[in-house]
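User: Please predict the structure of the protein below. I'd like the answer in structure-token form so I can feed it into my own downstream comparison script.

Assistant: Understood. Taking the following sequence of 273 residues as input:
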Amino acid sequence: MSETQRWAIVTSDHVRHRYFANALSAHPLVEALVVEPKSRNPANNHNNSADALLLAAYFDRRDISERTVLSAGEAWNFARPLRKIDAPKGGINDPDIVAELVAAGIDHCIVFGSSWLKGPWLEAFPGRLFNLHLGLSPYYRGVGTNFWPLHDGLPEYVGATIHLLDEGIDSGPILFQVRPNPSPDDDPHSLGNKTIAKATKALADRLHLLPTMPRAPQMSGENERNFRSKDFDANALRHLIGQLDGGMMAEYVRDLQRRALSVPLVAEYEPLA
């Protein structure tokens, strides 16, 4: 383990983000944490009462699942003392935040769930910003990259990608990817939280190895799909619920090996011995 690495975590303030930060705080190379708050319930943006109730129930179930599966993220609970920097909402690219990390000697950052990191970060940490992206790049891009595979009846495309941050959005070279271990009764929330837990464990195990890991460039292809926030609505959710009610997850689990092999990971995570 290199003694020259000094890491910061850059994340948000939901249960999943606290779970991630709490787990990585045990790593001896992690010294700082930057937290950017985010809004909690996208359903508030919808006005139709029937649709709003459906969407609100969906996000309520998400919160309950996070508190159950990722219970270690109920509160900040660091294994070791960290320098904590609170960024204002939407202010993650404030040069003063980056300058504070640089002044503290931080030279690498692991990112999960913050807003898009731009100029000041890329200039201060060239090639040393690593991101946990929920979704298997490059197949699904944009927003909801573990929702849309399930909407499309393709749970084999659910997972997480650890990649370098660059000027693009989730476009940097890939270090490795993970898939959750599915169950027939999984829903989007349980499957998503399994993904977060598995990716967090992988990063906690090998954070110090990231700078020297091989990187695979992301290649665009005909199977790539890109989604925006406006694409997610009550009708999309109803379609996903129909997929689940039709036995999508049980069918996937029965044919897991073949279907997983049909969507090869760019670089597969192998647990450390």
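That's the full token string. The chain has a mean pLDDT of 92.
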